[in-house]
Each structure stands twice: as C-alpha cells, then as structure tokens.
Target: SNX11 protein
Amino acid sequence: ELTTVRVQDPRVQNEGSWNSYVDYKIFLHTNSKAFTAKTSCVRRRYREFVWLRRQLQKNAGLVPVPELPGKSTFFVGSTDEFIEKRRQGLQQFLEKVVQNVVLLSDSRLHLFLQSQLSLPEIEACVQGQGSQTVTEAILHYAMSNCGWVQEEESRP
Model:
C-alpha cells in the first residue's frame, strides 16, 4: 500500500489585513484501503493542523503523535522562507501521521484530508450529528470534483 501526501501551494489569504493567514493545498494519492477516496485535494491553514494534532492526541492513547512545526511570531528571515519551512514541517507531520495505523483509524484525519468541511462540521460528522456519515462526506466531496478543480487551477 502506498500513500503520498503533499503539502504545497501556500497562499496568503486576506493579504494586508490584520486577519491574514496562509493556507496550504494538501494533495493525497493512495491505493490504501484505509482511505475512501483514492485522490483528494483540500486547502487547510496552520490552526486547522493544530486542531487535528490535538484531536489525534486525544484519541491515540499512548501512541505518540508527530510534532508540528513551531508557531514562531519572531522569525528571523523572510516571510517566504518562514512559509516554506512551515510547509515542509506540515508535510513531514502528515507523512508520519498517514504511516501510523492507530492515527490512520481516526475519522477526523480522513475528513481533514478528504473533505472541505470546517472543523465544527468535522466534529458533528464524527459524532453522527451531521447530515452525512464520514464516508458520505468524503464521497460527496470526491464526486463534486472540487479537489480536481483546485488541482487544475494551480497548474501554470
């Protein structure tokens, strides 16, 4: 079984405003039976990764959850350099997570990687309070072609 996960294409949103942030494209390609969709492409921001790590930690018991890159407010160097370092750290985090069988069994991880649901919607779905099951939410997103539209848009 092979799972490739790439964190790429960092984009600054709301540039120039106080609440600007960077989000990253997460591209997943797999032949693993653990995943509902074999390819997906979503955009997530750093604080959503922080949430994911916290949720995985809560549910993983004694299994260690990989670290995220630091949230440095006093970074020496260019912003581009910082964003690239963070992108690499987020990719390493996800690569380690998808290799771990215990972490891979968490529905939140699958919705994080394979749907565009917000964090509260992911929680509701996992707790059975959403309008769809976890599998339905992932398949709905996969069938909507949103992942492919994002993939195509970023090509030169």
User: Anything to note?
Assistant: Confidence is low (pLDDT under 50) at residues 147-156. The two ends are 31 Å apart (CA to CA). Residues 3-153 form a domain with the PX Domain fold (CATH 3.30.1520.10). The chain has seven helices and three strands.
